[in-house]
Amino acid sequence: MKDTLVLKTIQEKIKNLGSLPGCYLWKNQLGQVIYVGKALKLQSRVRSYLNPNQKDRKTRALFVELYDLDWIATRTEKEALLLEATLIKKYNPKFNVRLKDDKKYPFLCVSTSEDYPMVFLTRKVKDNGDKFFGPFTDVKAARDTLELIHRIFPIRKTKLKLPLAKPQRPCLNFHMGRCLGPCQGNVTKETYAELVDEILRFLEGKKERLVADLKSAMIAASAKMEYERAGFLKQRIEKINQIREKQTVVSLDGGDEDILGISKRDDEGQIVILEVRGGRLEGKKSFPLSGLSFSDDEEAFTSFLRDYYLNATVLPSVVYLPTSAKGNYDVFLEAILEKFGTSIKLKFPEMGPKKSLLRLAEKNADLSLTERILATKLRDQTVAMKELQEKLNLPTLPRTIECYDISHFQGSLPVASGVMFVEGKPYKPGYRHYKMRGYEGINDPGMIHEVIARRLSHLVNEGEALPDLIVIDGGLTQLSRAAEAANALDLGHIPMVGLAKKREEIYFPGEKHPYSFDIHSPMMRLLRNLRDEAHRFGVTFQRLQRKKKALKSILDDIPDIGASRRKSILSYFHTKKKVTDATREELEGVQGIGPVLAEKIYNNIQSLKKIEPKD
């Protein structure tokens, strides 16, 4: 239950809020901002969080951690929307949906503030009269677009302050027809401006209109017998058409549209934008999100639309969203209209071609998220192995790690399990099960001694490679016995540690006191994965042994069942549950069992089930 004093303190603060619009900041006991929200009326919105019986899962989770409140009043809800985005970037609150990457995405800049503009990549958007296009989430795609522009349009590529006081000799690009050569002063501002206008329309996706204008200019130049200019224009038309032919037509009405899809897994997510310009699918942008554990699609898209489109340089006419994202976007649309002088339409198709495109966007989002999660895991595994080498003072990078655990049921049917991770990932061919030979009852240290001795003896006798690290599921006692087994085989040089369950502490051979490391570090996550996998693998095997024993016991108690028939029943049904649930007809399906014997077996099983204790 939330501390009464904490609630009273917050309630007193709320009394001062009034009905102003603005942003509120919930903080935890450490003073960290854990959630930022906006409201038209701060007082009523903030008070709604203090009901402990919330239906919303996110609000319930937030209620548990909230300890203090801060706020910033604004003049309008629209101002609050913009302030909310700034505060989320500043504090990175755990309960807010946010773009994951802090890095700035690159833009293509057309330096229209200059007399003779050029096109280049930049991560800084300035309000200086230049035109910016982006952001590009894929740097390679941005560079490819820049290269394409330089190949199609003869714009200058060298940074110079033009016009020069004294014209200079043009570079190789001029002689190759890839630059009009403004450095030597033989192209007018008007002619160069026409070229820049073509580039702007190309980047805005207005290729169809651009091609039509270029054709008109080509015909006019040809009529004036300006054949060289007509030839240049024809080349540009052909190159642009080659690009357009490769682009899929997805909208016959030729509109500029964005189709958005989302994929979510736990706290992580990915939003993909399919950009349709002039009715053709021109590209894909993918954005990583975090803070999705307690958020629905409406909140995720509300946050993304605010962060992306309010910072965009070119707007589509329509944005298509999944029906799960339906909500109130009025404040966002007002902010867009105020900033750009035009608005966009939000549509939520439930069927038809646009619905199919939404599914395509969602599929791309899922693929992008899978790729990112795998890349993150791979990166974490590499970091984890390096941390293990450093923190445990290992002679080599632990590329092969084995972990061992003991499992039994109240001392009966003891087994051991060994799992192997290679390059930080489970390597199933290296998994091993062991039935204990020398120990009965509860003697985990002794059993660990036995399994390590058997494993290392096998590796030595077969000439197989030794692991880079052995992890024992247990504390000092288990680790000491494992080290004894290794020393007896003159293999004491193999690095070995024990991982205790309660406090996640690491023991080293010969040292009484354990070491503690950051439990959230990649190294500790890898060790826990090893330990948990060894435990899972062992428990599964131990349960199988119990089932086999119970099944054998049931069959032993049934009269007229010899060794041959018992073997047939065991191979036919495999598990105790299947035998005890078998019908008379199923029992008749076993080789060597007729209707009379099947009836007798069935009746015996039913009578045994009545007195069998529950597991």
From TrEMBL:
Domain of life of the organism encoding this protein: Bacteria
Compartments where found: Cytoplasm
SMART domains per the UniProt record, alphabetical: GIYc, HhH1
GO molecular function: DNA binding; excinuclease ABC activity
UniProt keyword list: Cytoplasm, DNA damage, DNA excision, DNA repair, Excision nuclease, SOS response
A biological-process GO annotation: nucleotide-excision repair
Coiled coil: none
InterPro entries in UniProt: GIY-YIG_endonuc (IPR000305), GIY-YIG_endonuc_sf (IPR035901), GIY-YIG_UvrC_Cho (IPR047296), Hlx-hairpin-Hlx_DNA-bd_motif (IPR003583), RuvA_2-like (IPR010994), UVR_dom (IPR001943), UVR_dom_sf (IPR036876), UvrABC_protein_C (IPR050066)
UvrC family homology region profile domain mapped to chain residues: 271-482
Transmembrane segments: none
Chief site of localization: cytoplasm
The GIY-YIG domain, residue ranges: 19-97
Pfam families the record matches: GIY-YIG, HHH_5, UVR, UvrC_RNaseH, UvrC_RNaseH_dom
Xref: CDD domains: GIY-YIG_UvrC_Cho (cd10434)
Signal sequence coordinates: none
A GO CC term attached to the entry: excinuclease repair complex
Subunit text: Interacts with UvrB in an incision complex.
Function, as annotated: The UvrABC repair system catalyzes the recognition and processing of DNA lesions. UvrC both incises the 5' and 3' sides of the lesion. The N-terminal half is responsible for the 3' incision and the C-terminal half is responsible for the 5' incision.
NCBIfam families from the UniProt entry: PRK00558.1-5, uvrC
Family classification: Belongs to the UvrC family.
Entry protein name: UvrABC system protein C
Organism this protein belongs to: Leptospira jelokensis
